[in-house]
Amino acid sequence: MQHLTESTVTERVLERISDCPNPRLKQVMTALIEHLHEFAREVALTPEEWKAGIDFLTAAGHVTDEKRQEFILLSDTLGLSALVDIIQNRSRSGTATESSLLGPFYRHGAPQLPLGANIAGNTPGEPVLIQGQVRAAEGKPVAGALVDVWQAAPNGLYDLQDANQLEMNLRGQFRTDESGRFRFQSVKPASYPIPFDGPVGMMLRALGRHPYRPAHVHFMVSAPGYENLITALYITGDPYLDSDAVFGSRESLVAGYRPYNGKEGGSAIRETLEYDFVLAPTAANAHL
After folding, report:
1. So what's the pLDDT on residue 286?
2. Domain count, the chain
3. Phi and psi dihedrals of 271, rounded to 5?
4. Which one of 116, 179, 196, 203 has the minimum C-beta count within 10 Å?
5. What are the tens digits of pLDDT across the range 216-266?
């Protein structure tokens, strides 16, 4: 039996995984163990602090269910989700639209709707027409691209959080026309606090941080031959653009409302939010 010290315990743990048959798993776990052990040594972690950390993660597990994912929220507020997203997309062409976070409120199966449809139903709020074009890096419009959209209501809640909202409220999928264009009606989004009545909220308060996200609309854009784009549009002038609680806002994704005089939605719609998305080709089509 070997005598363990601060320096040798890490070596002993790494020896135990030396025969791991999965090279990538071994690489990830080796780095994780090394960094965790170094963190404990650097801050001289006490047993009481270690136990508090375990209790925090346990509490996060207790509040997580099919409608709330506290661990994604934790990853988001620590900037880890943003970092993983940046790493994943670091090789993307500079002309392609910048990505942003998927977030914990995406849902599969949003209804496919005709262009110009209203995703807000009877949701109270200020009407707006959201429109734009999906195109390739060289400028060619991408017809038939699937534009999946979702947003919170003006009260700051998604349908998953609000019993007063209809199923799949403020969600929809649209196919771009032959010119690569899309459009749909909605209500203006508002800045809102992420759920802060659980462990993550407790952490933010202890750190002196606010829980707010700037107003935004989520987009997932996909088309054959192109990389899927997960992004969001953030609204010009929002007070939380520079302090997004989950580090998701990007300067290149900020857009402002403009006057609208068209016929879509009748006279109720007086402003439009416009943005064009540029897709990156998949590796197999990058040379085309």
Report:
1. 62
2. 2
3. -135, 155
4. 179
5. 999 999 999 999 999 999 999 999 999 999 999 999 999 999 999 888 877
Q: Which two tokens stand for residue 125?
A: 């709020």
- Verify that 103 and 243 share a domain, yes or no: yes
Comparing CA positions, the residue from 7, 27, 9, 5 lying closest to residue 18 is 27
Q: Is the pLDDT of residue 268 over 90?
A: no
Output the pTM of the full model: 0.90
Q: Mean of the pLDDT values across residues 45-69?
A: 96
In a shared domain, residues 219 and 116 = yes
| 38 and 82 part of one domain | no
Question: For tokens 């914990």, what's the residue?
Answer: 104
Give pLDDT, residue 262. 84
Residue ranges making up the domain that contains 247: 75-285
The pLDDT assigned to 283 comes to 74
In this structure, is residue 189 part of a structural domain? yes
The whole-chain average pLDDT of the chain stands at: 94
